[in-house]
Amino acid sequence: CKPAIAYKYLSEDLNLGIFMPCSISIYEKEWEVYISARLPENVIDKVVNNKKLEKMSKEVSEEMKWVIDSI
Known about the structure:
The chain has three helices and two strands. The longest helix has 20 residues, at 51-70. Strand 1 and strand 2 form a beta hairpin. The model has no long low-confidence stretch (mean pLDDT 83). It is 54% helix and 17% strand. By secondary structure, it is α+β, with helices and mostly antiparallel strands. A two-stranded antiparallel sheet has the order 1-2.
């Protein structure tokens, strides 16, 4: 992770946070909090063809959603 590079990208467009190494980005803009996330279930099938991994990624995604909803 290189904070200086991340800052440059995010200064251009906060939505680019989903392309950073962290899979969750939380930021504030005009007094509102935004959360963006790269959920494993949305990308796993584009990388591998493995039903077991797809099921696992869905479980991880559900946990991530729970954490996000708790914020």
